[in-house]
Design brief:
322 residues; alpha/beta; 5-stranded mixed beta sheet; two-stranded antiparallel ribbon; 56% helix; DUF4351 domain-containing protein; DUF4351
């Protein structure tokens, strides 16, 4: 088994921590609750389906004037007694002052209740590396007037302990692989060691005998969370390709399929960047294009979309890219 090494011999590229969590929660929401919040999972009537309330939540975030983006999901579910409720999942990947986190949990909670008049449960997943960061309560008072808001919290770092890690490896819950990938991405500083963990998790995925569609979904999430320097990524993919060939996979290999999907995604991103550059040129001229070209061409699709919306009312380029 690979071991963690904090010497940082080879640095890994910066990860996009929020986006894979948003996708993982949407694709594996029942499994997520079953693994990390089993008592909540047991209260839900899963035969009634779930509803992801992204538009409703984004409206509330704008009203709360929160500038930083978080891996949040608002989900509508039905309890076993037939009650319709909403569940707010907040994933904190960096860690910040406890007061700010807990207050934000409370703010979102009461705004949802106030706007939609539905019962709400707020659940926190802490994916950061600060052992002491464990907010579960927000309180404020003036004289005898008091607010006392408490919320369930799971600290993923606790699963890095040998006994809890063994539970994840033995689990048949598909979300255990997502949790393991996040933990190793966070606690492993040496890229060579991280490459070993990445291959181990992918191999474990195959050993569980998942169907092709699920394997591709999990590979995308693990690949998204565990980023390697280009040379090591090439080594990893060659090793994985050889493993897949050895196992005689009866379909397009994970590496090949991931390459196809990445190519499609890259094509969309390049198209959006090209359109935004044209708009900047038309409104602010070639000098502005030259100044912001690199930033635009390297941006993620969601960021490009946000900038494209701002350009409609922007009076200067700075107001678009602040």
């Amino acid at each position: 088994m690979p071991t963690d090494n904090h010497s940082a011999k080879t640095a890994s590229p910066k990860r996009d921590d929020d986006s894979p969590w948003k996708e993982a929660l949407e694709r594996f929401f029942p499994e997520f609750l079953a693994l990390l919040f089993p008592t909540v999972h047991a209260e839900i009537d899963w035969s009634q389906g779930v509803q992801f309330l992204d538009k409703e939540f984004q409206q509330l975030v704008r009203e709360a004037k929160t500038t930083k983006r978080y891996a949040d999901k608002l989900v509508g579910v039905t309890l076993r007694d037939g009650t319709a409720v909403w569940v707010l999942i907040h994933v904190e990947v960096q860690g910040e002052a406890e007061t700010a986190f807990a207050e934000r949990m409370y703010t979102y909670h009461y705004k949802i209740r106030d706007r939609y008049q539905v019962p709400v449960a707020s659940l926190a997943v802490l994916a950061d590396t600060d052992q002491g960061f464990r907010p579960q309560h927000y309180g404020t008072r003036l004289w005898d007037c008091r607010v006392d808001f408490r919320f369930p919290m799971v600290k993923l770092l606790d699963y890095a302990e040998p006994e809890r890690w063994a539970e994840l490896e033995a689990s048949d819950n598909v979300f255990a692989l997502v949790v393991m990938a996040q933990i190793r991405a966070k606690v492993t500083d040496d890229a060579e060691t991280l490459k070993g963990w990445k291959f181990r998790l992918i191999r474990l995925m195959y050993e569980r005998g998942y169907e092709q569609a699920r394997i591709l979904e999990l590979f995308r999430l693990i690949d998204w969370m565990i980023r390697l320097p280009k040379a090591l990524e090439a080594d990893f993919r060659q090793t994985l390709y050889a493993y897949e060939e050895q196992q005689r996979m009866p379909y397009v290999t994970t590496v090949e399929q991931a390459g196809i999907e990445k190519g499609v995604q890259l094509g969309v991103q390049q198209g959006e960047a090209h359109i935004l550059l044209r708009l900047v040129n038309k409104k602010f001229g070639a000098e502005a294009v030259a100044h912001y070209r690199t930033r635009i061409e390297s941006a993620e699709p969601e960021q490009l979309e946000a900038w494209s919306e701002r350009i409609l009312s922007a009076e200067t380029p700075e107001t678009i890219f602040h």
